[in-house]
Each structure stands twice: as structure tokens, then as C-alpha cells.
Amino acid sequence: MAKYLAQVIVAGAQVVGRAFTRALRQEIQNSQRAAQARSTKSTSQQAAANSVSGITVQEALQVLNIKDIHDLETLNKNYDHLFKVNDKSKGGSLYLQSKVVRAKERIDMELKQMEKDNQTASE
Predict the structure, then answer these.
(1) Do 9 and 61 lie in a common domain?
(2) Where are the beta strands (DSSP E) in the chain?
């Protein structure tokens, strides 16, 4: 009985090990594809925009609590709310309010760049 139990445990461990290995390989491939996609964008333009605004697009999305950069309604709603909540005269934080403004500016810059890239590609 113990022999069969040991065989079942070994077989199960092998199956789990193969599945884990396969998932790991797939994750590595996906990561490499994502890195290639990021490198095809003009990294110099992104670096310049990051240095001007002092914030990355991902950080701006997190500050404004939005998932999609193209969801302008939610973007504006969250921006207005966060800006008003952090108003110094209402006891808010000037630092946080400036972070919200910088996040909105960075997303606006990215949207303008994407629009410019789309116009260039369609020509």
C-alpha cells in the first residue's frame, strides 16, 4: 500500500513540475515579447516626457486611479475629485495636489504623442 502511495505522490509531483516548467517558459516568452514591444516605442521620447513631467505614465495612472489611458471621462472625474480633495484651503496637501496635476499633465502629454504618432502613421 505504501509503495502505491509513494508512486502516486511521485507521479503527481512530476505532473506539477512539468506544468510549472511550462508556465515558467511561457511567462519568460511573454516577458521578452513585452520588452521588445516597449523597445520599439521611441524610448527617447518617453524619457524626455518623463523628465519634463517628473512622472511616468504608469505612475500617473496609479495616482489618478485609472486603468485605461483612453478613458477620458474617468480621468477627468478622478482628476477633479482628487484636485478638490487636496485643496490647501480645505485642509488638503499641496504636495498631493501637485502630484495630481503632474499626473494629469503626463497623461495629456502621452495622449498628444499617441495622437501625433497615429497621424504620422496614417500619412
Answers:
(1) no
(2) none
State whether 64 and 8 are in the same domain.
no
Number of domains the chain contains: 2
How far apart are alpha carbons 121 and 8 in whole angstroms?
58
Q: What's the one-letter identity of residue 23?
A: A
pLDDT tens per residue across span 27-83: 888 888 877 766 655 566 666 666 666 788 899 999 999 998 888 999 999 999 999
**Grid cell listed for 106:** 503626463
Q: What residue numbers bound the domain in which 56 lies?
A: 42-123
Q: pTM of the full predicted structure? A: 0.59
Q: Which grid cell sits at 18?
A: 512539468
Closest CA to 66 of 107, 115, 94, 95: 107
